[in-house]
Amino acid sequence: MARAAATVTNPRKRPQQPRARATVEVILEATAHILARDGYEALTTNAVAARAGVSIGSVYQYFPSKEALVGELVDRDCERMDALFGDVFLRAQGLPPPELARALVGAVYRAKVENPALARVLREQIPLRGRLCRLEENLARITETVAGYLAHHRDALRVVDPARAAFYAVELAEALTMAAVLKPGPSGGEQAVDEITDVLVRYLFR
Prior knowledge:
Elements lengths: L1 H7 L9 H21 L6 H8 L3 H7 L3 H27 L4 H17 L2 H13 L3 H20 L10 H21 L6 H16 L2
Helix pairs in contact: 2-3, 2-7, 3-4, 5-6, 5-7, 5-8, 6-9, 6-10, 8-9, 9-10
C-alpha cells in the first residue's frame, strides 16, 4: 500500500527542456490557484488543464494524479521555507538574539501570509500526501541550526539545554505563525510578528 501511495503522489517524470519546464510551472500555478480558490475537493486534473491552457495529456505526462500535483506543491513549499530560513539566518546571525528572532519570525510569517488559503490547504495535505517526514526533516535541520546559535548565547538562556530550547522555540514559531496566518483575529501583520517574537524571546532568554 505504501508503495502505491508513493507512486500516486510523486511526479511521473521531471521536465528537462525549457519549454517542458515552463509547461510544468503553468500546470502547478493552475493547481495552486484552484486549491486556494476552491479547495482540494474541487481540484481535478481536467480543471487544472483548463486553467493552465494545456491538454489533459500534458498534465498526465508529468503528474499521474491530482495527488501528485498537490504533493509537488507541498515539496516546493517545504523547499521554499527551508531556503528562506537559511537565507535570513545567514544574513541576520550577527544580530542580537531578539533582533534575529524577529527577522526569522517576520520572514516566515510574511511568506505564509502571501496566500493564506493555499498555505492552509497545503498544511492540511502534508500528512495525506506522505510529506510529514519531509516537514519534520526541515524542522529538525532548522532546530539544529538554532541550537548551535543558542549555544553561543548560553549565559543568557532561561533554558539550560540549548537543544531543548531550540526544539520548543522552532515548534512554537511554526505553530504560531501558521495560526496567525489562518486565524488572524484582531491582530495581524507586524503586530503578529512582534507578539510571536515576544513569546519566543521571553521563553528563551532571561
